Fold this protein.
Amino acid sequence: MHYIDMHAHMVSRTTDDYERMALAGCKVVTEPAFWAGFDRRSADAFADYFYELISFEPKRAARFGIQHYTWLCLNPKEGEDRGMARSVLPMIPPLLDQPTVLGIGEIGLNRVTRNELATFRDHVDMAMNHNQMILIHTPHLEDKYKGTRVIVDTLVADGRVDRNRVIIDHVEEHTVDMVVSEGFWAGITLYPTTKCSPARAIDIIEMYGDERIYAASACDWGRSAPLAVPRFIMEMRRRGHDETFIKKIVYDNPAQFLRQNSKFHEPADRISVALNA
């Protein structure tokens, strides 16, 4: 079965991971800008990172028949540094016309501080001023509900925001309803320890339905799984869900969201995968 991984940090993965994902049916990856595991010491580091996302990763993915798109931002964790935010954010608008840039993301909150919220609002303003889609990170573990509530309330209060063009990612059992009931898209993250297992993700979908929702790996430099979505597909089959229902979650829903952006090109049904390139 073909699938789209809407949240994968491929700069931290090997080329072998692209090959494995292609063999498992991955057709499209979208990669949000994120934290590198340490706070970058200068704005120049972000300039290099953005260049890598725009120029290098699409070529690496294309060798295996995978379309690679990206999102740009200063991530929530480093958004606490307002000086860094003032230096980095002006770098982004000139890059938004690049053919693989989908919008602004992953923005959001980490510890739900005033500085993080100010940086989040700066990103939303940028997205609105440049007619960009948005992908949002919600906090981990104990800060999950509070942070998601603040994010949702902030967006709902902003009359400029088209909710159909906003993903709120890393939803869990106690946050998914507040996201989908307000008309946003919800991403379920298949990531050990701090997010959802395939079984939990399927529980959420069985409880809350299959509209405006999908599952993604968020694979990065931590303990994570580039093949999380295929494993989710296997668990869906084990539970007895039919192929049409599964395809809606892993391909049709993400594609429906992405079609709102003219840069997105629907993958061909058959793509020759250059495994030996």
In short: DSSP finds nine helices and eight strands in the chain. The chain has a mean pLDDT of 95. The radius of gyration is 17 Å. The beta strands are 3-5, 26-32, 67-72, 101-108, 133-137, 166-168, 185-189, 213-216.
